[in-house]
Write a structure and sequence with these properties.
Length: about 160
């Protein structure tokens, strides 16, 4: 029988805070975020990389946290939905989703928000096709996507310098 592999120390910057904990090598980033760090904003929808609900940014890159081993994020910075609001103020993405009615049950919302942050960081003024491409890997069972596209498009229409994340 295989011996369990020894636990290892995992260290990363999560939402700007240094964390260090002992984890099993097979623990996913989603398990560490939700079960160890109690950051339950990132959702487990499918657990198989399909729905996008668990999306976080690792060193600025969107990653499906359910498919990412926590140790793959060793020493890196991880941004989750909990890290978007700053100083008690919702981020511009969060405000836009609320203002445009882009949230119903909210299960897909954390992943959608992280996808939005990623898109706007690369492409500040995305057209509708770019927005739909970006969220195509994110399943929303409630909104029909139109309000989400509208919210992201509104962010892209803000004059340069008018609204910053
Ligand atoms: Fe990770 Fe669905 S829970 S993609
Ligand atoms: Fe319910 Fe998107 S708002 S899944």
């Amino acid at each position: 029988m295989d011996q369990p592999r020894p636990k290892q120390i995992f260290g990363a910057q999560v939402n700007g805070q240094g964390v260090e904990l002992l984890i099993a090598p097979q623990e996913t980033l989603l398990e560490v975020l939700r079960d160890r760090l109690e950051l339950t904003g990132s959702k487990e929808g499918c657990g198989e990389g399909v729905c996008g609900a668990c999306t976080v940014l690792v060193d600025g890159q969107p990653r499906r946290a359910c498919l990412t081993l926590a140790l793959e994020a060793q020493g890196l910075s991880v941004l989750t939905v909990e890290g978007l609001a700053q100083g008690g103020e919702l981020s511009r993405e969060q405000r836009a989703f609320i203002e445009h009615g882009a949230i119903q049950c909210g299960y897909c919302t954390p992943g959608m928000l992280m996808a939005t942050r990623d898109l706007l960081s690369r492409e500040p003024f995305p057209d509708e096709a770019a927005i739909r491409r970006q969220i195509s890997g994110h399943v929303c069972r409630c909104t029909g996507y139109a309000k989400i596209v509208e919210a992201v498009a509104a962010l892209g229409q803000a004059a340069p310098g008018e609204e910053q994340p």
